[in-house]
Amino acid sequence: MNLECGHTFSFSPDGEHFLLDGKPFQIRSGEMHPARIPREYWQHRIRMARAMGMNCIALYIMWNYHETRPGLFDFHSGNRDIEAFIRLCQSEGMWVLLRPGPYVCAEWDLGGLPSYLLSYQDIQLRTDSATDARYMAAVARYIEELVPRIKPLLINHGGPILMIQIENEFGSYASNPAYLEELRQLWLKGGVTGPFYTEDGLPQLERNRTTVSGGAIALSNGDAAQIATVRREFPAVPAMAGEVYPGWLTHWGEPDFAGTNYDLSNTLTAFMQSKQSFNLYVIHGGTSFGFYAGANVDDSGNYQPDITSYDYSAPINEQGAATLKYMKYRDIIGRYLPAPLPDIPGAIATLERTGIEALMPTLYASIWDNLPAALPRAQSINPQSFERYGQAFGFALYRKQLQEYAGGVLDISSVHDYATVFVGERYAGGVSRAQIPSEYALSLHMMHCAPLALPSTLPEHEPNSGGPISLEVLVEGMGRVNFGPALVDRKGLLDPVRMKAADGSFATLRNWEVFLLPMDETFIANLKGSCANPLKPGLFFKASLPLEEVGDTWLDMSNWTKGVVWVNGHNLGRYWNIGPQRRLYCPAPWLVRGDNEVLIFDLHQIQAKPVELADTLS
Q: In this protein, which residues make up the domain named Glycoside hydrolase 35 catalytic (predicted)?
């Protein structure tokens, strides 16, 4: 079903209603993110939302997914074609709420802001040009890139976009009307006149008054009562529940997946009875493939990285299947609609595993035999962050030659975010910024934000006198914080490294070699199958998965420790045996008939273990 051209969308003069073609209109929106869904599945997910009773799709545009380097934009490859996704919504009879940021939160690395902004040591994010012109210059470049793509898709140009959100939950960050107005003016400058809206929690909205001129108001965790409150305090514009949570996000190390027991039945019934507008965040979460999963910092300052799966306990699960919540909510919504809902689309097929044994990877390569050229030493008198070196994601190796070695205590407690340490060829332990279970810390000699005691002696084949010894710190940058005041979250070794000797004296270690290991598509494609020391952790393992037919599957990494998996060059994301996620989703479009290459990089294991295939996340 195609939406016809010639529609109008506006607000009633008294601010009571959204109006479609001059008549009151209930927005029933389900949120999903094209960046988290293989392009081949976009249509299926949109149809699933429509069959649950939605008439609209809300979507974030993740700025850093499209501008990976300053001025280098990609709105075409893979699932980055936002225009195609929006046109697909229209062809499926769905309206669109567009949430382009520049900041989106979304449990996405740095809330969607490009990490290159953090190369400026004193950068201020999410602020007006008078406060930090560098930030707003980058934002202006981004919006100028979006305008010609978005403008033809607005409802007044025959497209499906009803409204454009200005920023996101800014009231939870600051109070700066000049910033929000500057963003609105950038859109106006490009000829995009709205309608606009903002999104905030009710307490933050009341405290910081984070609205824009003439813009509607959407509420995070909103319900019918909160909408009524906003209508009393802001009577000139309509209000809606902009983020209604059917589930919740999950961090590494939590006991189980969050949000499984959430029930929106009463909330949805109230919306449908009163014909109030709402957006389910999220109706389908998908997957934070690659290195894009974000992180939080709790009230005590503890770093909490997000898992790879963005299943979110949403009505449509990670693979796109209807859950029990879906069926319950579809029934509630359908009772209040004049026409029957469309049939639920057929399920996406999972891999037929009959006759397929567990994968048994074999050792393929070592990171130590795949190091690029070191950066010029002048850049690393003291180790610097990934961002200062121009790297967005992945790993980096920091190496220092110690002229004399007799053990000691190494202070890299400010590591962001996970480091394994080697003295000579020997693994000496590591440091994790995130809290880790005590049994995990004990077995791997991992410290949580604390100095690391190094061995006082080395094996005989690595004499600790008569020559320099290499001290190596392999750092993994995990998700950047995506919410709250700790948004400036650089990766790598952020402070000078100090060593405490046996006599109690401290020395700052200077003049490092630094090797950038982005683990991106190019790096993985050029990986050499070489391993001089199979006993030194930091190894790649490879397996072949022969298939006669393809289907969705999950790789069960329960037997592995911590690392990343690629299938046919596609980065499925991180695994970590502290859980709760132990399986990585692999969509069928990334598989082929015949042999499929599975590549595993593990930070700790030197022995390969089986990888089972599964049909579900858990």
A: 18-335
One domain, residues 158 and 272: yes
Is the domain of 24 the same as that of 133?
yes
**Contact predicate 615/554, CB 8 Å:** yes
pLDDT digits (tens, 9 = 90+) for 341-382: 999 999 999 999 888 889 999 999 999 999 999 998 777 899
531 lies in the same domain as 512: no
Catalytic sites, residue numbers:
169, 243
Sign of CA dihedral 76, 79, 81, 82: negative
Q: Tell whether 448 and 565 lie within a shared domain.
A: no
CATH number of the domain at 126, please.
3.20.20.80
Handedness of CA 279, 27, 187, 76 (dihedral sign): positive
Write down the pLDDT at residue 560: 98
Query: Which two tokens mark 446?
Result: 């991992």
In this structure, the answer to whether residues 319 and 389 fall within a common structural domain is no
**Rounded (10°) CA dihedral 39, 580, 603, 67:** 30
Q: Which domain holds residue 164?
A: 9-335
Q: Is the pLDDT of residue 1 over 50?
A: no
- Does position 471 have pLDDT exceeding 50, yes or no? yes
- Give the angle subtended at the CA of 56 by the CAs of 51 and 60, to the nearest 5°: 120
Strands laid side by side in the 583-586 sheet: 583-586, 553-556, 612-614
Contact partners, residue 607, CB within 8 Å, separation at least 6: none
296-324 mean pLDDT: 97
* Contact (Cβ atoms closer than 8 angstroms) between residue 165 and residue 99: yes
Q: Which of 267, 259, 210, 258 is nearest to 234 (CA)?
A: 210
- The whole-number pLDDT of residue 501 equals 80
Q: Do 323 and 428 lie in a common domain?
A: no
Q: Is residue 562 part of a domain?
A: yes
* Burial classification of residue 373, based on how many CB atoms lie within 10 Å of its CB (0-12 exposed, 13-18 middle, 19 or more buried): exposed
Last residue of a domain, one of 313, 335, 357: 335
The answer to whether 545 and 598 are in contact (CB under 8 A) is yes
Looking at the predicted structure, is the pLDDT value of residue 158 above 80?
Answer: yes
Quick: pLDDT tens for 519-542: 999 999 999 999 999 999 999 999
Domain boundary residue, one of 517, 539, 568:
517
Is the Cα dihedral 172, 174, 176, 179 positive or negative?
negative
Same domain, 533 and 513: no
Question: If you average pLDDT over every residue of the chain, what do you get?
Answer: 95
Spatial separation of the C-alpha atoms in residues 174 and 388, rounded to whole Å = 26
Cis peptide before 297 (omega within 30 of 0): no
Phi, psi of 389 (to 5 degrees): -90, 0
Q: Average pLDDT of 182-200?
A: 97
Q: Residue 459: is its pLDDT beyond 70?
A: no
Residues 314 and 426 in one domain: no
CA distance 62 to 78: 14
- Enter the DSSP assignment of 350: B
| Mean pLDDT, residues 551-561 taken together | 98
| Number of domains making up the chain | 3
